[in-house]
Amino acid sequence: MKNIYLIGFMGTGKSTVGRLLAEDFKMKFVDTDKMVEEMTGRTIGEIFEESSEAEFRKLETEVLRKITEEKGMIVSTGGGIVVTRGNLDLMKNSGHVFTLIADAHTIHERLKADDTCRPLLEVAEPLDEIKRLLFERAAFYINAHHIIETSDITPREAADQ
Ligand code: S3P
Question: Cα–Cα distance between 12 and 7 in angstroms, integer?
């Protein structure tokens, strides 16, 4: 069984939906952010703060390469994994890639209710930054094998789709 990759912006439900799919299909669940943290012994926040976004992108790509060598996993990815050249193709060539999408306002509301550290959104106007990043990344997100709009559905419904 090929891997199933969940890509998409922060707050679109990749980890929650991924865990549900892993239970449904009795497959192993992995999360690239968690793997980066385990590999480095540092949190995402620390990597961005003490090193840089570029360093984080290198680490998440290293983790992704390892994942693509394995099969049968549900993979939840960090929202920006697609901006590193070649990563989307790596995923498409080693599995089925699903983008979870949501509109900027829904994302903004969901992230306000979530205490996960998201260094890229620690700015004065997070909603504007969400819109800017969504626009910048849209071309990658729409290039997945499948796209699921999650704004008005539950994680369970997204997993069922
Ligand atoms: C990022 C998304 C985060 C995490 C990091 C950068 C991004 O993951 O990888 O903060 O660039 O969109 P989630 O999408 O799981 O929040």
Answer: 9
Chain mean pLDDT for the chain = 97
Mean pLDDT of 129-141: 98
Average pLDDT of span 125-153 = 98
- CATH number, domain at 23? 3.40.50.300
The pLDDT value given to residue 122? 95
Interface TM-score (ipTM) > 0.95: yes
Task: Report the percentage of the chain scoring pLDDT > 90.
Answer: 99
Structure tokens at 77: 């990815």
The total of structural domains in the chain comes to: 1
107 Ramachandran zone, left/alpha/beta (phi>0; psi -120 to 50): alpha
Cα dihedral 125, 114, 153, 74 sign = positive
Q: Which of 46, 118, 120, 150 has the most ligand 1 atoms within 8 A of CB, as the residue to mutate?
A: 118
10: CA distance to ligand 1 center in Å?
6
**Cα angle, residue 22 at apex, residues 19 and 27 outer, rounded to 5°:** 150
Residues 6+ apart with CB under 8 A from 76: 6, 14, 15, 17, 18, 29, 30, 31, 32
Please indicate whether residue 37, judged by its CB atom, sits closer than 6 Å to ligand 1. Answer: no
For 90, the domain range is 3-160
